[in-house]
């Protein structure tokens, strides 16, 4: 029994190794032996400090709240942030506003 993986495209069992790749002779699909290593995303504040889940940050610019006429003022302290993937990479709760998403470029580590 072969220990080589089946072809991910056509499920053929007749794959073979060729250098750093596996090759399927039936559909000519090639894929790397080693799975791509996913690097952890590092989120930094406006000053370049690394942010982590649970940190406290301070807003460094007046931020308009989308869909509202209110503004998050400069100096507003946000406690217990949570880092997420996406354009707005911080999930948090701000007193008086509720749950929000912020961009890390508009905060500094407190």
UniProtKB/TrEMBL annotation:
Keyword Hydrolase: yes
Domain Protein YjdM N-terminal: 3-32
Domain Protein YjdM C-terminal: 43-110
Alphabetized UniProt keyword annotations: Hydrolase
Signal peptide, first to last residue: none
Molecular-function GO terms, alphabetical: hydrolase activity
Family in the record: Belongs to the YjdM family.
Protein name per UniProt: Phosphonoacetate hydrolase
Organism, as annotated: Zoogloea oryzae
